Amino acid sequence: MILIKKLSVDFIEEIKTLFAEIFTNEPWNDDWSDENQLHNYILDLTGNRNSLAIGLFEDEKFIGMALGSIKHWYTGTEYYIDEFCIKSQKQGKGIGTKFLAMVEKFVEEKGISHIFLQTERTVPAFEFYKKNGFTELCDHVSFVKEFR
Description:
This protein is of the alpha+beta class.
């Protein structure tokens, strides 16, 4: 049985474990070895007034999550997803698509009119989101400025 649950900051250890398991491996290979940095990042995503963390559970096992925040914009209220992931062993079986549909239904029922997210063109997530009806914002540009 697959179901979703709204997660709180009380679930932070489980979120950190799954997050690190997924994103320290292919295709991301992120270095989350700094436990303090990982803890603070997940706290940023789950511990704010506008945070919305949704967990995916299969037979009561935590296998996926959508971590983000609610943002109020002139075109309507958005769910800005910072992180969306499924346990690696569960990928490629349609579970991510099912989870995304469940998240869409959940936020739509809360009066949210848009989901906004970013990903890189070079990772499988790019095609996943396109396949699931997301539209690429061709005029949208991301910038970064480093201070090192």
